[in-house]
Design a protein that fits this description.
The chain is about 25% helix and about 35% strand. It is α+β, with helices and mostly antiparallel strands and about 525 residues long. Among the domains are: about 70 residues, no CATH class; about 200 residues, Thrombin, subunit H, CATH 2.40.10.120. Strand 14 and strand 15 form a beta hairpin. Helix 2 crosses helix 3 and helix 2 packs parallel to helix 4. The longest helix has about 50 residues.
């Protein structure tokens, strides 16, 4: 039976405990603790190992309870998030918010109760693709939700009760067409007809509700990621302090170059081992377990040279598959824009690379896909063409702020650099993860950087309004209504995939517009899509 650890105070006892200060593998009740404790013999931050594969690492409160950290279970499941934080959403009480990852694949972002069962609102991502998002009750959909089917290319919106569809539902395809049908207890009772009129407004209201609710959830999860960054920083500082006084780094002694190499290879293959810090923590253990199960490897293989061999084989196999696909000479079907956030990592839109058999840059070098976020239309790529000119992540833009947009519209092979201003702090349907700007955007600009006057990133270009549609519906031609994606989502993706990036300002003194344009030129590339 899984032991519930959320509300149990972690009392420190034992004659050999030296507090306040750093302790290493000290027996505390029924677990071993490594980390910092206070003058009241309470843990402040660190790692607790409870035996039989259950462990926790992160912060504690004054009563010794978990606050923000990672809890891993003996079966390989793990949770990363906040604990013991009371709240209510859509009439459901919760005490935790974060991400629960299943050892067999898939994960859930949600608000949780004391049993780490989703309550109120959440998103479940399935191992084989697709997701379900919406209102939750005791881990099951209950209320407004959407089911996404990646393979079929459509989503179903509506409302459920007792996990069954009830009422008017909408089936929306990736090409923008949608259909409606009444369903009672999962049984079709009405005709399957095109969505229009009042029904279309109802569909848009559902989508707006889900978008806003998800943005609020991701805002909370982003706070978790930032707190965990503080935790990792404390570990590094403790390493330096202890090593300086004892010549032996207690925390670094747990680190391993083999584990670090395994973490890097797992990230390349699309797993989520966490930071490449050389520590065999819960995220890394779960990622290794998932890799071994996916490859039908012997479960007894440890984090050693044999694991590295298997990981290298799989990386080489996937690279070979991509190379072979290029030899089939598919046709170039489209282009987009991407930009560097470090020397070998690019950011673009998910729709730029969707359905592409392979991707290249302007030098015809293959670009590898690290991860995609279909919901937020973002994709992270890796390139072999190293570049020392990359863009720093800045802050979300202010209303009226002057900005610059860089990209390669209409398959042009020369950079287009335009300027404008932030005209609204929300996107279509009041999406708070997006914003509106007046800088001209054309087809091919998608995935390009939006920069402030300091040359720092404030967003990612992703859409422009349909001029023809507006002309036909209103009789007027819209002027410079374009949209960008805010940075919170991008930061989450980069942190989740252990991708380094710089924040703040690249320049000591405010650059000229010409300098910002030169930075954009050196850090922005054309992406070719072959199908």
């Amino acid at each position: 039976m899984r032991i519930l650890l959320l509300l149990v105070p972690l009392m420190i006892q034992g004659k050999n405990m030296t507090c306040p200060g750093y302790v290493f593998d000290k027996q505390i009740d029924n677990y071993l603790f490594t980390g910092q404790c206070d003058e009241n013999n309470m843990p402040v931050w660190g790692v607790g190992n409870y035996g039989e594969g259950t462990s926790y690492q992160g912060f504690y409160d004054e009563e010794g309870r978990f606050t923000t950290g990672i809890l891993i279970y003996s079966d390989g499941d793990y949770y990363i998030g906040r604990f013991n934080t009371s709240g209510e959403i859509f009439g459901k009480e919760y005490i935790a918010v974060g991400t629960y990852v299943y050892a067999e694949g898939g994960y859930q972002e949600a608000y949780f109760d004391e049993n780490l069962t989703a309550q109120g609102f959440g998103v479940t991502y399935f191992k084989d693709g697709g997701y379900t998002m919406g209102m939750m009750s005791f881990g099951r959909p209950d209320g407004i939700k959407v089911d996404r089917y990646d393979d079929e290319g459509y989503s179903i919106y509506g409302s459920v009760s007792n996990s069954k569809w009830n009422g008017l539902t909408f089936q929306e395809y990736d090409d923008g067409t949608s259909y409606q049908q009444y369903i009672i207890n999962d049984q079709n009772v009405g005709e399957f007809t095109s969505t229009q009129g009042v029904a279309q407004e109802q569909l848009e209201a559902i989508k707006e509700f889900l978008s806003v609710s998800y943005a609020e959830l991701m805002s909370e999860i982003n706070k978790v990621e930032k707190t965990m960054e503080e935790y990792y920083q404390l570990i590094e500082e403790a390493d330096a302090q202890i090593e300086a006084t004892t010549k032996i780094s207690k925390f670094a002694s747990k680190r391993s170059l083999i584990v670090k190499s395994a973490q890097e290879l797992l990230t390349i293959l699309g797993y989520m081992p966490g930071r490449a810090d050389g520590i065999l923590g819960p995220l890394t253990k779960a990622a290794i377990k998932a890799f071994k199960e996916d490859q039908n490897l012997d479960p007894s293989i440890q984090a050693d040279e044999n694991l590295l061999v298997e990981l290298q084989k799989q990386v080489r196999k996937e690279s070979s598959t991509k190379s072979n696909s290029k030899n089939d000479t598919p046709l170039k079907e489209g282009t987009g824009t991407g930009f560097y956030v470090n020397s070998n990592t690019l950011v673009t839109n998910q729709h730029v690379i969707e359905s592409c058999e392979y991707l290249t840059d302007a030098k015809d070098e293959i670009l590898d896909v690290i991860t995609v976020d279909r919901l937020n239309d973002l994709a992270i790529l890796r390139t072999k063409n190293l570049n020392s000119n990359y863009i720093y992540l800045g802050n979300d833009p202010d209303l009226g702020e002057n900005v610059f947009v860089a990209g390669f519209p209409y398959n042009f092979d020369t950079l287009n650099f335009t300027s404008g201003a932030i005209s609204a702090l929300v996107g279509p349907e009041k999406n708070i993860t997006q914003f509106q700007l007046t800088a001209p955007i054309q087809p091919g600009n998608s995935g390009g950087p939006i920069l402030d006057e300091w040359g720092s990133l404030v967003g990612v270009t992703f859409a422009r309004i349909d001029d023809l549609y507006i002309l036909e519906s209103s009789g007027t031609i819209p002027q410079n209504i374009n949209y960008g994606i805010k940075l919170d989502v991008l930061r989450d993706i980069l942190i989740e995939n252990n991708i380094t990036f710089n924040e703040g300002r690249k320049y000591w003194f405010k650059p000229s517009q010409e300098q910002v344009a030169q930075l954009a030129k050196e850090s922005t590339i054309l992406i070719n899509c072959y199908k």
